[in-house]
Every structure is written in C-alpha cells, then in structure tokens.
Write a structure and sequence with these properties.
Layout: H1 3-20, H2 26-39, H3 42-65, H4 74-87
Length: 95
C-alpha cells in the first residue's frame, strides 16, 4: 500500500468535507465537482465512479446492514441499501 498516496487522498477528502461543512455552500461544492470531473480524462471519470461512487454506496449499505446509522445518515444508508442490487455486479472496465 502506498502510504503517501493514502495520506494525499485523505487530505483531499478532508478538504472536500470541510467545504461540505459550510452551510449554504452546497451549490458551490457541486459546481466545483462538476467543473473538475468534466475536465478529467474519461478513464479517470470511470475510476472516480468505480472507486468513489460505487465504493461509497457499498460502505453506506454496510453501515445499514451493521446498524451503524442514526437519523443523521439513515436516509443515505437506506438509499445505498436499495442501490446495492445495481452496483454489486456492476462491471466498470478499466479502458
């Protein structure tokens, strides 16, 4: 495992969550995400979906399964559980 890459990823995600924690800034975060994703190579867009979106759904569904929810994240975990049949066998090739 590349510890430097893991730390870099953690730092980037912490910055994202810091931005999400600013009430009223949600549209700016979404627009920033849109701008960055649209500029990325399509293979990187696929990797984002494979490693961020799908893995997030799996992690939230696991929280639901393990009853590690409360009112603050319950709706996200419920939705993730419903999406699992669609993502568990998803094939997102690296091209």
């Amino acid at each position: 495992m590349d510890r430097d890459l893991q730390k870099q990823t953690e730092d980037a995600l912490n910055s994202l969550f810091d931005a999400l924690n600013k009430m009223g800034g949600e549209e700016s975060v979404v627009e920033g995400l849109r701008q960055v994703l649209n500029k990325q190579h399509r293979t990187l867009q696929q990797n984002y979906f494979r490693y961020i979106v799908v893995k997030s759904i799996e992690m939230f569904a696991e929280k639901k399964y393990n009853r590690f929810t409360d009112l603050r994240n319950e709706a996200s975990c419920d939705l993730a559980e419903k999406l699992m049949p669609f993502v568990k066998d998803a094939h997102l090739p690296f091209i």
